[in-house]
Every structure is written in structure tokens, then in C-alpha cells.
Write a structure and sequence with these properties.
four-stranded antiparallel beta sheet, homodimer, DNA-binding, about 25% strand, about 35% helix, alpha+beta
DNA sequence: ACATATCTGTGATTGTAATCAAATTTTGGA
DNA sequence: TCCAAAATTTGATTACAATCACAGATATGT
């Protein structure tokens, strides 16, 4: 791993280097703070914390991805967030919130860095610039949620699924000659649980989009987006 | 109007007194800041700003309420936020965001207070405690959006509508002997546009909830929630 | 208080997605 | 590489909500 602050290769694997909220810190500040961070690893399917838990720590993803979800009265998962490398969460418990509003579960092997509440508050008051960074990050999160809500609100199912694909393309897409290659963080069932629709419907609609030449699935976990413009028109995200 | 900082009645109508993010300021700081705030009034239906506008100000609602929405490709409004007294918005434009992600329109006669970007940044660095307050407020907003997403994701329509009613009860409800009296910020059509369903369906489902004895509509703009427990069970919000 | 414009409720029909039930493909571990 | 488990696709049927059409109720301004 290479980073902006160390010469040559970094061996310490400081998650901080991947996290925008710490980008305003000097190397010295970073290494001081890194000394008060704890590390954890999780396997796919492992639960980081459950809805209602009163944990008091900020969790930063160093590697991997995590879904945040609730169980609906119908017994289905409603996914609320998908967090990946560099994202942080759990912060609500640090700022006034009492209990976790959702369960967090690793979607793949995941490594995290953990701040305790005390460590975090100390840092916050010592480095006010971080607060602004946090606000910016929360704004990004709100913007992402707004985008998801817009996708969910579209009445036509193709539009909803297309909207989610665009969101994922934005966050997980890699531009290749033919279009945008999207490594999906969620399975078909996960997508269904994000949008609140049936798993089978997701399959059918993706099949439809494929036959229209808009996408080309590459295995189950990757989709090649060939015609983003059509999707944008379907979802109203052509702004 | 009465406030914690002035003896007797306040005549200056400082919106700051209603806004949690300023609660950590001293009276002197408040009156200094109030001198750099601008005021605006809007009629019902008037647009404060439109999607894509690059405004650079923080808007605080002093009186009234405002909806934030986008237009879906189907031509329908997708409501993303309902802001009311004490809420602030537009802040994304202050923190890195470039353009407004939605259109803001007054739902009723509304008075606002406006911070310019410069004034706001000065205040932020002079009073670091405000940053923490802002983070807390954004966390609340995220929590509210999570709740809305959960409502939207419930498959059964009664559940979705019930979830929204609970959200509104939380924010706009007043406890009365018979239950909770909710002054709805949105019309039936507004509710439909929030949830992404048809207006008629909202009517039908509310009618159904009425015949089940869960709610009692009082005119078009008020609903008396008689049996919150049933709603909570329907929506999974009984945590 | 009245009148008009807007909003809301109800019925009939249609369209779309949920559900149930297998068959098939993909994936990850031995 | 192969095998078993998991995930996905596909088909048939059913249930539910969207739509269209209009009647009725509410609200707002004069």
C-alpha cells in the first residue's frame, strides 16, 4: 500500500489514510491518532452490531463492505446503507444518538478501525477542521440517500432498478472501453431488499435491460453498463 | 414570543432562538450573529430555489414549512424532505456541494432566515461548538431519512402509509386524551408523492385505517391517531 | 357567508409485480 | 478440478395497486 504521507510502501496499513475526514491532518497528527485506534476483522455474514445495541464507537472501513439494515414486519430485510472502503458509520452513537438504528453485517471479508467515543471527542476538539470534514461527509451521505429515495420513489420498477444501478456505477463503477464496469456490492436479493421489491422481479427487470442492450451481466457480481444514457432517462438522473 | 435569553417578550423575532444549532451560544454571540442574518417571506407554493441552482446560503425556517422535491421521469414530484420550523437546509451548498439537488417550495406562508456562506464560515470557526451541533442535526436528518426509507421499503401499502403517519406523529403530533393529533404538513397528494404511490391509493388506505379504528381524519389536514400500536406493528417501528 | 377552485373519495377496469414452484447457473471450498 | 450449496432465472398464477372517470367534500378569498 502506498500513501501520501509515507515514503515508499506503508506497512502499518493505517486506515486513516483512506479516510477523507482525516485528510486535513499532518503526518504527526495522523500517527498520534492512529495509536489510539483499534482494529477488527469480520467474515462475510458476520454482524458488527445489531439494531438497538448501544455501542459508542465510530467505525471506519479499511477494507471490504458492510450493509446496514432493519427487519420489516413482513420479515424481509430493508437495507438502508451500503458502506465500503473509507466510509465510516456508527457515528450517530457518538453524537447524541442512543442506540443503533440498524444492524450492520459484513458483505465480504472486512477490516475496520474503531474509535472510542472519548478518543474521538478529544480529536474533534483538538482538530476543528475534522468537524467540517465530517459535515461534508454526512452531506455526501445525505445526498446518496436522497438519490436512493428518488430511485425508490420512481413508480416503474425498471426505473427504480436503473436508478440503483446508476448509484452503484457512481460509487463502484470503473470506466472501461465498452462502458462502466460495476462490481455490485449486493446480490440480486440484496438489491431487492434495498428497493423493497421481490428478488424475482429484480432478475426479470435486469434480464429485460440486458435484452434491450442497456447492460450486460458478467457473472452474478458484476454488471457492464453499456448505455448509461438510457438509464438516466428512465430515472430522471440526467441532470 | 418568549425566549430563554431575553427578559419578557422578544420583539426581534430572532429565528436563532428556535434553532438547536445555536443553542450553545451566549446572548451576546447570538445578537452579534443575528445582525448578519437576512430575512425572507414566501407564500404557499412559492419556490425558494430550484433543483440545479447554485445558491450559497444556509436557510433556516422561522415559521411555516417547506418541501424539497425532484421531478421523476414520469413527471411526478418525488418529495425528499419536509422541513419545518427550526429546520435548516441548503447547507450542502456551503460544504463542498455545488448545486441544489432539489427544488424547495413553501407548503404554507413561510418566513426564513438566511446566512451567507461567508458569515456562516466565520461563525463556524469562531464557535466550534456549533459544528458539533450541526453534526448532531444532520444525524437527526439522516435518522429521519432512514425512517422514511424504511417506510418506503415496506412492501404492503398500508405499512408504508402507516410508517409515514408515525414519522409525522413524531414530528408534528400533539398528545391529546384520545391519542395523537397530527397536523399533516402534506396533502393526500403530497403523501402520495412522498411515498411514490397514487393519490387514490392513499385515500383508500387511509379509509381502511379509519374503518379499522386506527385513525380518525379531522378535516383534510389533521388526523387523529387512535391506535399507534397497531401502526407500529404494521411498520416494524415498535422498537 | 358565499362561491369557486382545489382537493379528496369511490367505483370499474387494466396492468404490473408478488407469489409459488421448479430448473438452471454460479460460486466457493475440498 | 470437481462437487455441493447457494444464488439466480424462468414460468404460471394470483393479488394488488395504478389508472381512468366522476361525484362529493373542503378550503380559500372576497
Amino acid at each position: 500500500m502506498k500513501c501520501d504521507y509515507c515514503t515508499g510502501e506503508c506497512s502499518h496499513k493505517l486506515c486513516m489514510h483512506k479516510v477523507p475526514i482525516f485528510s486535513s491532518l499532518s503526518p504527526e497528527e495522523m500517527s498520534h491518532i492512529s495509536s489510539i485506534i483499534k482494529h477488527n476483522s469480520y467474515q462475510r455474514g458476520e454482524v458488527l452490531f445489531s439494531e438497538g445495541d448501544s455501542l459508542s464507537s465510530l467505525i471506519i472501513i479499511n477494507e471490504g463492505s458492510v450493509k446496514g439494515f432493519k427487519i420489516t414486519p413482513e420479515g424481509r430485510e430493508q437495507i438502508l446503507h451500503v458502506f465500503s472502503e473509507g466510509d465510516f458509520f456508527g457515528e450517530r452513537n457518538l453524537f447524541g444518538g442512543q442506540q443503533s438504528a440498524y444492524t450492520a453485517e459484513a458483505l465480504e471479508p472486512t477490516k475496520t478501525c474503531v474509535f472510542t467515543k472519548d478518543a474521538f471527542y478529544k480529536m474533534l476538539f483538538a482538530h476543528p477542521g475534522i468537524a467540517v470534514k465530517i459535515i461534508e461527509t454526512l452531506e455526501d451521505r445525505i445526498a446518496r440517500m436522497e438519490s436512493t429515495m428518488q430511485s425508490m420513489g420512481v413508480r416503474s420498477l425498471d426505473g427504480r432498478i436503473g436508478g440503483l444501478l446508476l448509484d452503484f456505477a457512481d460509487k463502484y463503477g470503473e470506466t472501461v472501453p465498452e462502458g462502466i464496469l460495476i462490481r455490485l456490492p449486493l446480490s440480486r436479493e440484496g438489491i431487492a431488499n434495498f428497493l423493497g421489491v421481490a428478488r424475482e422481479t429484480v432478475s426479470r427487470k435486469l434480464g429485460q435491460l440486458e435484452s434491450e442492450g442497456v447492460i450486460r451481466p458478467v457473472g452474478n457480481k458484476t454488471i457492464l453498463l453499456l448505455d448509461g444514457e438510457t438509464l438516466k432517462a428512465m430515472t430522471g438522473k440526467d441532470s
